[in-house]
Write a structure and sequence with these properties.
5-stranded parallel β-sheet, binds flavin-adenine dinucleotide, Electron transfer flavoprotein subunit alpha/FixB family protein, DHS-like_NAD/FAD-binding_dom, globular, flavoprotein, alpha/beta, flavin adenine dinucleotide binding, 7-stranded parallel β-sheet, Rossmann fold
Length: 295
């Protein structure tokens, strides 16, 4: 079996290529720039002309797909690739299996209903498309050559021009690579209160993420920092939810954590049913005390 891996970021490229290597005879990896070498049998680099949006590289990726003729495509579920690869899959009338958790030569395991259930799925088309979140193949090792080829850009019939670029503040951390993750939720009453969470993270060597309302309603974190079904899917060793209610859309992003803790002032908060250890208390009361003990 031949698998094409499409990824933008190094960690995802490594992990998806490793996952593909575990069952595929041949792994080809396609990306936009700065390829990771040694993880696939061949690496294809798509150079998008200046001023063009990367999403406009659809025809180039369609050509790669036709030339390589893989039976499986693994893609990193970034916003851009969901749009671009989703279009590729639709164009090919192909089976799409999102958020897979395991794969063998016959079938894949995927999560559904927002991650509360798993099912076994089988492709019914010659090529199938699968996305996988961080941590899905974290125990697998990639291997490959340093062969890198630049793919000629195929200009789309209708160009998609990039009319404006805004540089967002860089994400403070790569949560996908963190062993310990703390998530701040709406239990934090103000942005200033997050300082206690940062102190806590520093003391235990964790990185700080959040629930969706803290990025979309409050704008206290960049969009890349929220955890859950529409954000980051993580597999940390340790997860600590502070002021997090435990809604399924958030918890599915960390339910592969090895050990999970929660701090919440409401003893009946749903998160307490989903973690290994819970502490009932108000953030302003308990977090400074924990930090004082840890310092
Ligand atoms: C389609 C869809 C997709 C979604 N995707 C995501 C996603 O990917 N990620 C995500 O996070 N959410 C997602 N959501 C939103 C999700 O459903 C929840 O609304 C969200 O996770 C709740 O965030 P929260 O726990 O921070 O806030 P809340 O639900 O408001 O909970 C706040 C918690 O803090 C506690 N609290 C309050 N004050 C204190 C205090 N002083 N001390 C201690 N505890 C306190 C409260 O008891 C409560 O349990 C999605 C929703 C939809 C509809």
């Amino acid at each position: 079996m031949k698998t094409l891996v499409i990824a933008e970021n190094e960690a995802a490229a490594r992990e998806l290529a490793a996952g593909a290597r575990a069952y595929a005879d041949e792994v080809v990896y396609a990306t936009f720039a700065d390829p990771v070498t040694g993880i696939a049998d061949k690496c294809l680099v798509v150079e998008v002309p200046e001023g063009q949006a990367k999403e406009a590289a659809f025809d180039t990726f369609a050509k790669i797909l036709a030339d390589e003729d893989p039976q499986m495509v693994f893609f990193e579920p970034t916003r851009r690739l969901k749009a671009l690869v989703g279009r590729l899959a639709a164009h090919n009338g192909a089976s799409v299996m999102t958020d897979i958790s395991a794969i063998d030569e016959e079938s894949v395991q995927t999560r559904y209903f927002g991650g509360i259930a798993e099912r076994t799925a089988k492709s019914v088309t010659p090529v199938a498309f699968c996305s996988a979140g961080a941590g899905t193949f974290k125990d697998a090792e990639p291997s490959g050559t340093d062969v890198v080829e630049t793919v000629e850009y195929v200009a789309p019939a209708v160009t998609l021009e990039c009319v404006e670029r805004e540089t967002l503040p860089p994400a403070e951390v790569d949560l996908t690579a963190a062993d310990k993750v703390v998530a701040a939720g709406r239990g934090f009453g103000s942005e200033e209160e997050l300082e206690e969470a940062r102190t806590f993270c520093k003391a235990i060597g964790a990185e700080l993420g959040c629930t969706r309302p803290l990025t979309e309603t409050e704008d206290w974190f960049p969009r890349e920092a929220y955890i859950g079904i529409s954000g980051l899917m993580l597999s940390p060793e340790v997860y600590v939810g502070i002021g997090v209610s435990g809604q399924m859309q958030h918890m599915v992003g960390v339910d592969r954590a090895h050990v999970a803790f929660a701090i919440n002032k409401d003893a009946h908060a749903p998160i307490f049913d989903k973690v290994d250890y819970g502490l009932v208390g108000a953030i302003n009361d308990v977090l400074p005390k924990i930090n004082a003990k840890l310092s």
